[in-house]
Design brief:
The protein is mostly helical. Helix content is 81%, strand content 0%. It is built from 4 helices and no strands. Helix 2 crosses helix 4 and helix 3 packs across helix 4. The mean pLDDT is 91.
Length: 132
C-alpha cells in the first residue's frame, strides 16, 4: 500500500509543494489543455470547470492522499509538511483560483497572438527574400 501511495503522489507532487510550484504546474497543464481547445484538438473548454475541478481534486484526491502519506509515515516529519502544503494550496486556490483561471486564459491568448505575429513576420521576410 505504501508503494501505491508513493506512485500516486509522484504524479501529483506539485499539489503538495509550495504555492508557487503548484501554480507553475497548474498553469502549464491548463495552458496545454486550453490551447488544444482553441486549436480544435479538444472539444472541451477547460476554463469552464477548471476552478471547481481543482477544488474537487484537492478535496477528494490530494488531501486524502496527503493524509494517507502522513499516516503511514513514509516521509517522516515531512509527511505532515506535504499535507499542510496541500491544505494551504487548496485554500489559496479557493480564494484566488477564479482570477487565476482568467489569467491563465489571457496568457495562452497572448502567447498565441505573439506566435502569429512572429510567424507572419518570418513569412514576410521569407517572401521578400524570394522576390529579390
Amino acid at each position: 500500500i505504501v508503494m501505491e501511495h508513493l506512485i500516486q503522489a509522484s504524479d501529483v507532487a506539485h499539489t503538495m509543494q509550495h504555492w508557487h510550484v503548484y501554480r507553475k504546474w497548474n498553469s502549464r497543464l491548463f495552458g496545454e489543455m486550453y490551447e488544444a481547445y482553441l486549436c480544435g484538438r479538444s472539444s472541451h473548454d477547460p476554463s469552464e470547470n477548471w476552478y471547481q475541478g481543482e477544488l474537487n481534486f484537492f478535496d477528494f484526491y490530494i488531501i486524502p492522499l496527503a493524509k494517507k502519506l502522513s499516516d503511514c509515515g513514509v516521509f517522516g516529519v515531512s509527511s505532515l509538511e506535504y499535507l499542510n502544503y496541500a491544505e494551504h494550496n487548496r485554500k489559496e486556490w479557493a480564494d484566488r483560483g477564479r482570477q487565476m483561471v482568467a489569467e491563465y486564459q489571457q496568457e495562452v491568448l497572448t502567447a498565441q497572438q505573439e506566435n502569429k505575429i512572429k510567424s507572419s513576420t518570418t513569412l514576410a521576410k521569407g517572401d521578400a527574400g524570394m522576390g529579390a
